[in-house]
C-alpha cells in the first residue's frame, strides 16, 4: 500500500464506521451537507467557473483506446454544451481495465472503501461544478441539481460503499479450523477467504439523474473490487465525465491504476450500452431507464449480474385526512417537483367517488379535484418560484405525453407553459391533472412519465386498495402513499403494500414528500415489484458483485 | 404466535446465535454429530425399521391437489423401493402454497429461523432412517449416506438459516428518523422495515446428494419467508419426501400452514422441473445437476432468481511434495470416495513430464503414475473396504464413460468391478486412471463424471498453473488442489485460483480431502467460475431471496 492510500485509510475509517452504523440503524445521517451555504460563497464562484471552463472543448480525460472524440449535449435550457469526450475502442479499453483489477482486488475491502470515500469527499468539494453540469443536462432546476446531483448522490455512493464493505467482511479474512478426532490428534487447518471481483461493471446512466442513479452501482462495483465502465446517457455525459475524472485522479493518487474507472461516451446510433452489456468482460450491469431496455438487459446479458430500475405507476390512496391543506400542499409539491420527471412522482391518485372526510368535513370527489388543482396553481403561480420547482422538460417524450393527456378523462388542471427569463427556449411545463374512473384501466396501468397525474374515482377505499395491490404487482411502482385517519385502512394499505412489494408513505402533510428518499434511512425501490429488480441500497445490491475464494492448508 | 412456536424460539435461540457466530468466525462447529454411535444402538434399529416401513406402499404425505400417485425408484443396489408419492395438480397446489405465505412472512425472521432449527433437530433425530433412504437412492455406501445425507446436510441447512437470518436483520425492524431543519422544528418520522418473500421457491434435487445439495436452498428460501416446492430427482425421492414430511409436521406444530413446503414428484417424461421453473408463482430456483439444464434455467426463468451448481473440471497440480506417501493416500481416497460421483472429485492431475521431487527424491512422471495406481489398488484391495468407500454406480452414464475412458491416453489403472455380497447386482467400480498430455485439451476440458482421473503431463509447473487458470476460467471447477514444497509455487497457484475463482486446498496429505467441505467453515463452490453461480452458503446466496419493504409516517 502506498503512503497516500494509508493516509486515506486512516483519514476515512471513522466515516466508514459511521456509515456502517447508519445502514443498520437507519436514523438520519449524512456527512455531505445539502445546503449550498455550507459550501461557502467561494465554492459557488469557483464551481461555476470550473463548469464554464469545460464548455466548447474536449473534456480533460485521457483513457486507453480512445479512437475519436464525441459529444453533442444540448441543455434542456437551450445551451449547446459543445464538450467532447473520449470514445473507446473497447478491444483496447476493456483489457486495460481488466489489467488494473488484480492490484485493486489484492488491496482488500478496507483500502478500497476508504479510497472511495476520499473520492466521494473530492466529489463533494466539487458539488457546485457538478450541480451546474446536472442542471444543464437533466433540466433540473439549479437548487435541485445541487442537492440531488451533489450531496444526495454522494450519500447514495457512500451508502453503497458501506454495504459493500459489510458484505465483504461478513466473514473473517483468515480462520483456524480444528476438528476433534476422538482419541486421535485433531485435524487442524488455516483458511484464508478473499473477496474477488466479478469482472468489469457497466453503469448505464440516465438523462434525468445522471449522478444520483449512477453512483450506487458505480461505487458498489468499485468497492467490491471490480473495474467500472460508465456509459452515460448521450445527453447527460458531463456530470459523469467529471465523476470519472475525479475517481481516476483519486485512484492514481492512492497508487492504483486509474483505468479501474473509465467513461464510454457513444456515437449517435451506436447502441453502445447493448454492445457493452453483451461483452464477456462485463459481469455486472447497473441500469436506470425504460422498462423495455431494462427487460432486454435482464434477458440478454446472462454473463452478468443485472440490476435495473425501470418504470412504474406510483400510487396514492386518499381515504380521509385530518390536515386537508397539508395534504393538498404536499401532493401539489410532489406533482410539480422537476416537472414530474422523477421515477418517484405519484401518478395514480385513487379517491372514493362519494368523496372523503377532510378535517371533519365532507369533500366530494370534485371538491378534492378542484382543491388539488388550486393548490398546484398557487404553488406555481409565481414564475420565478415555478421555474425553481419545475426545472425544464428534458425530452420531447414528456411534451408529447402532455399533449396526449389533454384528451384523457376530464382535465381538472391544464398544463401551462412557464416563461424562463434566463433561458427563453426552455420548455417549462406545469402539471396536468385529469379525472378518470377506476374502469379506465388502460389509462392508469401505463406509465405517463412527466407532470401528469390521474385522479381515479373508485367505489370504496377497499376497492382502491385492491386495485393498488393488483396494479402494482403487475405493473410495478417505486412509491406509494396513503392518506387516512382510520388505522384499519392504514393497516390494510400496509398489508397491500407488503403483498405488492412497494414502499409506503403514510399521511405526508409536511416537509417530507413521497418522491424523496433519504440515503442511509429510506430504501429507494424494493426489487419486489416489476419497477425495479433491486433497491438502493441493501445487501442484495452488493453481495453478488464479488465472490469469496478460499485457500486452506494444514497447520 | 402459538405457544409451541414460542417454545421453539426460546429453545433454539442459542443454536441460532452460535450458528451466526460460526458463519462469521469459520472455525470448526457443528451441532449435529457425524458418528453413528452418537445416535445410539436403538436409533440404528428404529431408523432401519422406519425406512423399511416405507417400502412397497404410498408415502404418508397428504397435500392439496394430489391427482395421482407416482414413484418407481430403483436402488443402485438393485432393490425396487416400490414407494409412491403424491403427484401435484399445480393449479391447486401452488395457490395453496401461496395462501400459506402471509402468515409466515408476518411471523418474522426470528420465528422462522427457530421453527426451522426445530425441523432440523427432528431431521437429525431421524438421521438413520434418512441415511438408508439416501443409501438406496444415491448408491452412496451406508457410512457416507449417514454422514453426508444426515448431519452434514443438516449443517448446510442450518448454515443457510443463519445466513438468511443475518441478511434479514442487517437493518433494524423499526427506526426513528429526525432531520434537522435549521431554526425550524426537525422533520421526524418513524419507519418500519419488513422482509417480504419473493414467492414460491423451487428446489430441484439431484440423484447423488438428494439432501446435502437440496437443504441449503430449501432452508434459505423458507427462512426468508418463501414457500418451497421440492422437485426431487425421479430416482431419489424418498430422502426428500421424508424431509418434506418432517417440515410439514414441524410447521403444523408451530401453528403454521404445512403447505409452506410441498413435494412435487413427477411422472416419467413429464419434465416437471421445466414446467415448475417457468410458472409465474415460482420466484426462486435452486438447482444442482448438469450444465445444460442449469444454463437453461439461468436463461429461461427470468421471473425467478436462479442458483445453480453445474459441472466442472476439478484440478490438482503436483509440483513437489514432502510427504509423498501422504499425498498418494490422500489422492487415492479422493478418487475413490463414492466412485468419484461427487461434484468435488479431482479429475485433472497436472504433473511435470520431467517428474517431481518427493521427500527429497526424484520421481518420474511414470513413477508418480504407478505409485498413485498402487495406492488406489491397495486402498481398495479388500472388497468389504472397497464397497464401504465406493458405494454403487448410480446411473448408466457413469458406466458408459468408464468404458469410453478405457481408450483414452495410456491406462495407468484399469477400473475393476467389485463384488458386493449383500447386493450382487450392484455395479461397484474402482477408479480408472489414464495418463494423457497437456496437448490433449479436448479430453480434459470436458467433465468425466465418475471414477475417472487423468494424469496430465505438462512441460513445467508454471505451464500447469497457466492451463489451470485458463481451463477453470472457461469450464469451471468446484475444487482445486496443489502440492508443492515451494512457497513461490503455492503463491502463484493461489493467485491463479483467485483469478479463476476456485477454492484451493494446499498440500493435503492427511485426513482432509479435497472433495470434502465443512459447513460453517468451507464455502462449497464459489460462484466465480462456470461450475456454479453461487456458493453454499454466503450472503449472496440468501440476500436476494427476500426484499425489504418499508412504511414511514410522521411522528
The CATH H-level superfamily of the largest domain in chain A is Aldehyde Dehydrogenase, Chain A, domain 1
Return the CATH architecture of the largest domain in chain A.
3-Layer(aba) Sandwich
| Total number of distinct structural domains of chain A | 2
- Helices of chain A, by number, come to 18
Detailed description of the structure:
2 copies of one chain form a homodimer. Chain A has 555 residues and is an alpha/beta fold. Chain A folds into 2 domains: 3-310 and 535-554, 3-Layer(aba) Sandwich (Aldehyde Dehydrogenase, Chain A, domain 1); 315-506, Aldehyde Dehydrogenase, Chain A, domain 2 (3-Layer(aba) Sandwich). The first copy, chain A, is 43% helix and 21% strand. Chain A has 18 helices and 22 strands. In chain A, helix 17 links the parallel strand 20 (479-483) and strand 21. In chain A, helix 3 (90-125) crosses helix 8 (238-253) and helix 4 packs across helix 5. Chain A starts with a helix and ends with a strand. The mean pLDDT of chain A is 97. Chains A and B meet through helix 1, strand 3, strand 4, helix 10 and helix 17 of A and helix 1, strand 3, strand 4, helix 11 and helix 18 of B.
